[in-house]
User: Which sequence fits this backbone?
């Protein structure tokens, strides 16, 4: 459970950080948006190092599925665009991949 919460926090931080830059460079917001974006991206990096995994690559690969699903949720909650069935199916497939990576017997 703690791994999932850490991944969820990392995803929120990464998406918020990237969205700050998106807002600045694509939506015409002030360059000041980059400052909280940088802080959020630093928080993302720190959180990802907190995942209990002996290999960084495995932790990063499993995180990828959480990031995709969280991005679809961001699309809906932050940007007000309802995900379509393809968004939902893609997110579900990515989460299935995350589960295989995290729960696979080694």
Assistant:
């Amino acid at each position: 459970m703690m791994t999932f919460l850490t991944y969820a926090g990392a995803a929120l931080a990464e998406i918020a950080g990237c969205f700050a830059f998106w807002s600045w460079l694509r939506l015409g917001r002030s360059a000041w948006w980059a400052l909280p974006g940088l802080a959020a991206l630093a928080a993302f990096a720190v959180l990802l190092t907190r995942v209990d995994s002996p290999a960084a690559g495995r932790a990063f690969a499993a995180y990828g599925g959480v990031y995709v699903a969280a991005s679809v949720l961001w699309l809906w909650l932050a940007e007000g665009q309802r995900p379509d069935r393809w968004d939902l199916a893609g997110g579900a497939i990515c989460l299935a991949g995350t589960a295989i990576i995290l729960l696979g017997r080694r």
